Amino acid sequence: MTAQDRIKETVTTNDVVLFMKGTKSMPQCGFSSRVAGVLNFMGVDFNDVNVLADDDIRQGIKDYSDWPTIPQLYVKGEFVGGCDIITEMTLSGELDTLFSENGVKFDQDAADKIREANA
Amino acid sequence: MPITAHEIETLLRESFPDAKINVQGDDGSHFAAEVIDPSFKGKNRVQQQRAVYAALKGKMDGSNGELHALALTTKAPE
């Protein structure tokens, strides 16, 4: 299976997927760490894909989304954004809406706490 | 080769001649850029930031890219 096929299968068979440097328990880049941290804190059940463990995926994910940077968040197969976009969406509440609309469970209190702490 | 905030701004200016552009950062690899451009109107953030990355012409690309980290803020003018 090509890298593009593997990526497509991963993002379409899992509701929430984060392509990141490192893993959700041990991120290896500040930007990946920030997004994984938000999802962990919000109690979102997500799949992490460590691009540092696979060069084909590391390049392939950039081609797949036409997006040059890691991390990349996918919800229900759709590319949502990178670190800056996820941060903005978290603080504006748009991420809550996106998760709700797609039936992704998350801790609303935790999401509100992030916004209170960054108000 | 390190890149400067000024070079980033020059690259962005070529693609966004009418934009309000603000680039911060002086360590040669970590920068923050804000781009406010009329062409962003009606585009979502992913589309806006893709346009900015395209303007940077591969400088973000992986290990060969000169730019390791660019924090981006994009929006259309109010």
List strands and helices in order, with pairings.
The complex is a heterodimer of chains A (119) and B (78).
Chain A (H helix, E strand, L loop, with lengths): L2 H11 L2 E5 L9 H12 L5 E4 L4 H11 L6 E4 L2 E4 L1 H10 L1 H8 L6 H10 L2
Parallel strand pairs in A: 1-2
Antiparallel strand pairs in A: 1-3, 3-4
Chain B lengths: L4 H11 L4 E5 L5 E7 L8 H11 L13 E7 L3
Parallel strand pairs in B: 2-3
Antiparallel strand pairs in B: 1-2
Q: Main attributes?
A:
heterodimer; A: 119 residues; alpha+beta; Glutaredoxin; 6 helices; B: 78 residues; GMP Synthetase, Chain A, domain 3; three-stranded mixed β-sheet; 2 helices; 3 strands
Structure description:
The complex is a heterodimer of chains A (119) and B (78). In chain A, 52% of the residues lie in helices and 14% in strands. By secondary structure, chain A is of the alpha+beta class. Chain A has a single domain, classed as Glutaredoxin (3-Layer(aba) Sandwich), CATH 3.40.30. Chain A has a four-stranded mixed β-sheet, with helices on both faces. In chain A, a hairpin with a 2-residue loop joins β3 and β4 (78-81). The mean pLDDT of chain A is 96. Chain B has one domain (5-75): BolA-like (GMP Synthetase, Chain A, domain 3), CATH 3.30.300. Chain B is α+β, with helices and mostly antiparallel strands. The A-B interface holds A 30-31, 58-59, 62, 66-69, 79-85, 88 and B 45-46, 49-50, 53, 58, 60-62, 65, 69-73.
